[in-house]
Write a structure and sequence with these properties.
Elements (H helix, E strand, L loop, with lengths): L1 H25 L14 E6 L25 E2 L4 E5 L5 E3 L6 E5 L2 H4 L6 E7 L6 E7 L2 E3 L8 E2 L1 E6 L12 E7 L2 E2 L11 H22 L1
One calcium ion (CA) binds next to loops.
Length: 212
């Protein structure tokens, strides 16, 4: 009896501890675990700071690892990432994009720093989604785009000194992602259909002719 009571106590203690850990690590928000939703590659970057320790592309690529925080420090510069050809950011209900910047609220360390986020479908035309401070969310509805593939993050800090100068971007996650949405205006598929139908009719005719 006592043994059973003891094991119940231990189990509830473990549960309580694990729950409080999750809440602390993510401040109510939780980082997604699907790697497809995150940035795939760095397309272009210009980082500031001669003593900048955080200059590796893979620091901003892939999922958030709260136990091993390795952000890309912009040092007053910028970075452009590719989310992936079929892993586009889609405009759905609410915020569609989250930029993870090493800050007190989400990571429990470091002061939040400011940056501006731009999105593009083709790397030619860019639309601003506004400024972020620390780990922040953005809505594609604030732009003219209903999907985007590239994300440009421009530092709004001007610090170039120290090991982690300027904004420290750990990851870029699409909260809604997928393939390019089908056009809202239905495109008639008659040309393709006509070609296939004519071909079938032609083959049928030859077949009939042969049979005669
Ligand atoms: Ca991706
Ligand atoms: Ca949205
Ligand atoms: Ca910093």
């Amino acid at each position: 009896m006592l043994e059973r009571k003891l094991s119940y106590m231990i189990i509830s203690l473990i549960l309580m501890l694990s729950l409080s850990f999750t809440a602390f690590a993510a401040d109510g928000r939780t980082a997604g675990t699907d790697s497809r939703a995150y940035a795939n590659a760095v397309v272009e970057k210009e980082l500031g700071g001669t003593t900048n320790f955080n200059t590796y592309d893979h620091y901003i690529i892939g999922v958030v690892d709260i136990n091993k925080i390795e952000p890309l420090s912009l040092g007053g510069g910028y970075v452009i990432v590719d989310m992936g050809a079929n892993e586009l950011i889609l405009d759905e209900e609410g915020d569609d994009l989250r930029v993870y910047e090493k800050d007190q609220i989400f990571y429990g360390k470091d002061t939040p720093e400011a940056y501006e986020v731009f999105v593009s479908q083709d790397m030619q035309t860019w639309e601003s989604l506004g400024e972020g401070l620390g780990t922040d969310e953005f809505d594609l509805a604030d732009s003219k785009l209903n999907w985007a593939r590239y994300v440009k993050i421009e530092d709004r800090e001007t610090t170039t000194t120290g090991r982690e100068p300027g904004s420290d971007i750990d990851a870029v996650e699409a909260l809604h992602f997928g393939e390019e949405p089908k056009s809202a205006v239905p495109v008639p598929s008659t040309p393709g259909f006509t070609v296939v139908f004519s071909l079938l009719a032609f083959v049928g005719l030859i077949f009939l002719e042969k049979k005669k």
